[in-house]
Design brief:
The structure holds two protein chains of two kinds.
Chain A: H1 3-34, H2 40-47, H3 53-63, H4 69-81, E1 87-88, E2 93-94, H5 95-130, H6 135-149, H7 152-166, H8 185-222, H9 225-232, H10 237-267, H11 269-274, H12 280-289, H13 293-321
Antiparallel strand pairs in A: 1-2
Helix pairs in contact in A: 1-13, 5-6, 5-8, 5-10, 5-13, 6-8, 7-8, 8-10, 10-13, 12-13
Chain B: H1 2-19, E1 31-35, H2 51-60, E2 65-67, E3 73-75, E4 78-83, E5 89-94, H3 108-119, H4 126-129, E6 133-140, E7 143-148, H5 169-172, E8 192-198, E9 202-207, E10 221-225, H6 230-239, E11 244-245, H7 252-261, E12 265-268, E13 277-283, H8 293-302, H9 305-312, E14 317-319, H10 346-355, E15 367-373, H11 378-393, E16 396-401, H12 405-413, E17 420-426, H13 431-434, H14 436-439, H15 459-470, H16 474-491, E18 494-500, E19 504-507, E20 510-511, E21 528-529
Classes of the chains: A mainly alpha, B alpha+beta.
Amino acid sequence: MNRSNKILHYVARRLMQGIPIILAIVVMNFFLLNLAEGDAVDVLAGEAGSATPEYMEKMRAKFGLDQPLPVQLAVYLKNVVQLDLGYSFRHEMPVHELIFDRFGATLLLMTSTIIIAVGFGILLGLLAAVNLNTWKDALISVFALITYATPLFWVGLMMIIVFSIKNDWFPTSGMENSAAFYEGFDRVKDIAHHLVLPTITLSLFYLALYTRMMRASMLEQYGQDYVVTARAKGLSERRITFVHVLRNALLPVVTMAGVQVGALIGGSVIVESVFAWPGLGMLAFESLFARDLNLLLGIFLLSSVLVVAVNLVVDVIYCILDPRIEVN
Amino acid sequence: MKITKFMNAVMMTAAITFGGGAVYAQQSGGSLVFLVQPEPPTMAGYVSTSGPIGLLGPKIYDGLFDYDNDGKMIPVLAESVDMSEDGKTVTFNLRKGVTWHDGEPFTSADVQFTIMDVLKKVHPRGPNSFKEVSSIDTPDAHTVVLNLDNPAPYMLRALSAYESPMVPKHLLEGEDIKSAKLANNPVGTGPFKFTEWKKGQYIRLDKNESYWKEGRPYIDRIVGRFIPDASTRASAMEKGEVLYAAYNAVSNVEAVRLNKEKDNISITTDGYSMINPMALIEFNTKEGPFTDAVVRRAISTAIDRQFMLDTIFFGYGNPATSALSSNFAATGLHAKMPHYPANGDVAAANKMLDDAGYKKDSDGVRMKAMFDLIPYGEDWKRGGQYIQQVLGEIGIQVELRYEDVPTWLKRIYHNYDFEMNLNYFYQLADPVLGVHRHYGTNMIRKGTHFVNSSRYSNAGLDALLGAGMKEPNAESRSAIYLEIQNILARDMPVVNLFELEFLTVYNTKLKGAYGSAMGAYSSFGDAYLEE
């Protein structure tokens, strides 16, 4: 069997394994979420100010909340298998519509954050490692430490105060200008303009992580025998760094990035909240407090699928980065 | 900064000098972006009275009347109202030539359907407001006759677009009203039409070109923006990205700062008199340490209401002096009651408890209790902390409990698993609408939120509440409510703390948005932007 065929088989097998994992996650989430006191009807009625008990019973019956838990779970699983994520009674909308409405914004923020964090993280880590124990190394390390230790919400608010209020460079929040409603290319520019502050804020945290990781990984690789061999055969330091060490040092960073793509979806609640970015994190956060379990389960399902998929992609990238790694 | 301020002053002087005598015309056009917090679940104001829906609904749906800041009725969809001698027949004469946003004509059948099939059945407060309406006749397309079992003077205070929005019969008839498509695609007769809802971002409403009121609305577009973070909301206000924020969407501390620092930002407490929010403590009168009215009276006596207002709410509000808000004084329904000292009297409270035989133990503790706090933000936590401290001084040791909204609602209004609970209630435009639900025996309804959770039951009071509801004569009504307040000051199933004043923060280029007693819950049909 040739290599690409092998990879295809591997991918297919991993996908098959992913299905029971995802179903198990769904079942676990279902029971965990149902442990919380109160349900969607309580919240809806509470927000409305008052509601009669008969009205609340009717709503529970309509939402299917009067059924015993195992029945509710069976119904939900049946729907999920048919790729139906159910209905959010709170929003009076199908869950998949709600999620895909917000997924674009999350994906945009996540992608730009990963690119900037991983890109600059690798660059800074490389610089620090190459200039080991010089002022450059110290500066980068201190920078990484500070950004890693600063709370995200504080960075976000400072960004707004400095770059939006004191200097009128960027809008405070939102995804697009809601007074103007630009169209076409102007809209793209407008969204990019709104994307800058949240991306920088979220990147700073992860940037620190990747910088430190890349630096350590580079230093470890420098100590390996193959580097000595490469030097012995007369390769330039430049070539050793960029062709040999860098490529090997990337492996742990890629692993980390893979794990974090999944976490970023849920982990950006703070940034989404500070910058009013309409992503999935905020949606999940709100639906938890509204006990909108269908919606919450849908979001969790999507993130678990993403984590499984991204991990698979990472494994495939391994093979490309390091031909010695075999799939089997 | 200084230069900008100076320039502004110069420009203002110039405007006054050169513009003297000229009548400023209301300008048409522009976008009004304002804060809606939090994002509403739907826009069905006929099913839910939740705050964010109230901010948007009345722009889309009209009511029969609006109310000005003196409480006078302003004709909206109804041009006039007549009440018969015995108060049992109420006739509305509807405006002619009004159409729904989809082009269908608005008629008396819509009003009949709205009151009988929507408000009386699915609205949270409608069954109370329209309780006495037994049937509605529609002799012609523009006349509506309500037949009442008993006189219901309070009903005329509940006809605003927020409290009783008029909804299209042709889009709701035969549907399950609570899950009808109309909830997310509202069609009303109001000055603005629903255009788009970007979940997590904004709701956009555009000008209704065929609005019944000539030349209105002035503004082309209204956008309600959702910003979850309180500091960011203040920043957006400061930067002029949003022009209006009501119901403390911008916190008091930021509002006061912006008002002081920025020339173009002002604050007002107008626009909440029909809402009448009252902060209070509910007690479990059936079980636990607070079954004795003496203890509840002592607690009311000990709390320094003015101190709470000054330190936590920046002085916005008035100490409560009775079970009824002093805003009801205009209709003669308010009287000052004992046990409501504005500055608190710890010594007197201690004496009351001593006299009643509640002994302090060696640690100075008479009793212990759990104190639940309404989970609506930091201010309430701080309020709870203050009360905890004061109660400590009179020997009542309380532990604070702060849970999320569904858990809290279930605990207080379903399981009755609480001892005392910090909360606030809207007393609304008349005690019948907002206060009766807190004390009547018929309002002990397990699972219904914001009703009589104290489970206080007093046949004498029930009779008075019933009489107050039906009494059309103002003087007799005043006497009934004086007796009601006396009973409640003695039994104190609920200790009222203070009448909250919400703050509206606005950019001064927004004009004409403040004429309605409904404040932010009004239509904004007369609002305009001065560029």
